[in-house]
Amino acid sequence: MSFQAYLDTIEDRTGMTPRELLAVAHEKGLDAPGTKAGQVVAWFAEEHGLGRGHAMAFWRVLTQGPTISGKYVGTGGTHAHASDTLWLDGKATKPS
Asked: Which among 26, 50, 58, 95 would be 20 to 30 A from 2, CA to CA?
């Protein structure tokens, strides 16, 4: 599953876009120095019923931003992406 597919599923399950979830994570202090990935895993499990894979995909965006390695762009594989930038503003507004 690609990072974008994880983010899209997170949106489906939470009703919030990745950008909205980033704002909530900031309010909770989950983007503060020293925060551990396990804290995001626990938050996703407790409040959204999401597992570790979804939480870790979000953690990656939270800590590293929306740009991903170009090695998966256009590969056609399981983890393939159309772009090296993840779309954070919701599936309804995602360019085709």
From this structure: 26
